[in-house]
Amino acid sequence: MKFQTISARMYGIGACLLIAIPAWILVKLIPALEIIGAPVIAILTGMIVTIFWRSKPKAQAGIGFCAKQILQCAVVLLGFGLNLSTIAKVGVTSLPIILSTIATSLIVSFILYKLLKIPAKTATLVGVGSSICGGSAIAATAPVIDADDSEVAQSISVIFLFNVIAALIFPTLGGMIGLSNDGFALFAGTAVNDTSSVTAAASTWDSLHGTNGAVLSGATIVKLTRTLAIIPITLVLAFVRLRKEKVAGASSGTKVSLRQIFPMFILYFVLASVVTTLVNMALSGAALDGANTLFSWLKEASKFLIVLAMAAIGYNTDIVKLVKTGAKPIFQGLICWICIAAVSLTMQHVLGIW
Predict the structure, then answer these.
(1) Could you tell me which residues come within 8 angstroms of residue 56 by beta carbon, excluding any fewer than 6 positions away?
(2) What is the DSSP string of 213-272?
(3) pTM for the full model?
(4) pLDDT band at 1, cuts 50/70/90?
(5) pLDDT value at position 56?
(6) Which residues of 81-105 are buried (b: 16+ CB within 10 A; e: fewer)?
(7) Mean of pLDDT values over 2-16
(8) Is 197 exposed, middle or buried (0-12, 13-18, 19+ CB in 10 A)?
(9) Phi-psi label, residue 210: left if phi above 0, alpha if psi -120 to 50, beta otherwise
(10) Which one, of 146, 147, 125, lies nearest residue 135 by Cα?
(11) Digit-coded pLDDT (tens) for 165-201
(12) Where is 180: in which H helix or E strand?
């Protein structure tokens, strides 16, 4: 039975790999494409290919596996990129700004969801993606709220759009308004959605101002600190979903338990972060270098698995429907993006950083 299950999935997994591997290699060969990112290239390619693919039903088992289980595995491996002790030492200074921007994005998303009647799951994914860490946050949240692939694709597309704009204009904007190096590191780390775009914006600042990678390092730590918000957000959403489904279950006579809904993969993500932290505290010298090399590989594996999952999500997305229904989520993403940037700069001014 297990062999039959694996065999049924292999065709779809292979189809996803045919998109994920070229997308991954392309970004590695052309660093300028990092501003777009391999996940976005994979999801767009999948949406285009699925229009012409006639034998897709045969691949559906494997595509579904990549879109769900592989995506959760990618989130778990993401934890190996988080050294909690480093974040505690350096990232804690950015905590007031991070909390303010996250709260702003979630509140704005809720208001727009009510006013514009945006589908609840799409509004949640765009709000979480805008406030925490773009694609990674969406990847972690989607299974918790049981979002379908078209909702994931739509939110990823919205986040991608404003990632590109931020990476292109924020270094110039920061220079125009007189941000210091530390100020821009905080701004990039809190006001840019996805890690790749944070890296692109901070690297551009370093090149323009000759800071020898200092801003890139600072912005990355701020971004990693922000990533930790995945944990409480997903747990809260799990309890909200449980409450709703219990109400629905009570009326239909169906029992719903926390075990059915609780995102166990988030606990594994936390465990991976704790392992990384303890190893960095306990080891030194060559042993520590070896462990960190392993963690780097696991982090890269996480990134590739996200690309693989995005290819699967692209296959399951109707691009025509996505375009027709995309105006409201894009407007939500725009307002969240503007508000987050404004709050980040305002908080820096209040705290005397800028």
Answers:
(1) 50, 63, 315
(2) THHHHHHHHHHHHHHTTHHHHHHHHHHHHHHHHHHHHHHHT----HHHH--HHHHHHHHH
(3) 0.87
(4) very low
(5) 80
(6) bbbbeebeebbebbeebbebbbebb
(7) 80
(8) buried
(9) left
(10) 125
(11) 998 899 999 999 999 999 999 999 999 988 888 988 9
(12) none
**What's the pLDDT tens digit per position in 46-60?**
999 999 887 788 899
- The set of residues, in sequence order, having a beta carbon less than 8 Å from that of 156 and lying 6+ positions away, is 39, 40, 43, 129, 135, 138, 310, 313
What is the reported pLDDT for 253?
60
DSSP 8-state symbol, 201: H
What is the Cα–Cα distance from 101 to 345, expressed in whole angstroms?
10
Q: How far apart are the first and last CA of the chain?
A: 62
Does residue 240 contact residue 261 with C-beta atoms inside 8 Å?
no
Average pLDDT, the chain: 90
pLDDT per position as a tens digit, 104-142 = 999 999 999 999 999 999 999 999 999 998 888 999 999
For residues 186 and 94, is the Cβ–Cβ distance under 8 A? yes
Instruction: Name the 3-class secondary structure at 270.
Output: helix
Sequence-separated (6 or more) residues with CB below 8 Å from residue 224: 81, 82, 86, 87, 91
DSSP string computed for 25-45: HHHHH-GGGGGT-HHHHHHHH
Three-state SS at 158: helix
Q: Which of 86-95, 225-234, 296-305 has the lowest mean pLDDT?
A: 86-95
CA 76: distance to chain centroid?
13
- The phi and psi torsions of 49 (rounded to 5 degrees) equal -60, -40
Q: What is the DSSP letter of 1?
A: -
Mean pLDDT of 82-92: 83
304 contacts 19 by C-beta, under 8 angstroms: no
* Residue 54 DSSP symbol: S
Q: Which of 174, 178, 170 is nearest to 201 (CA)?
A: 170
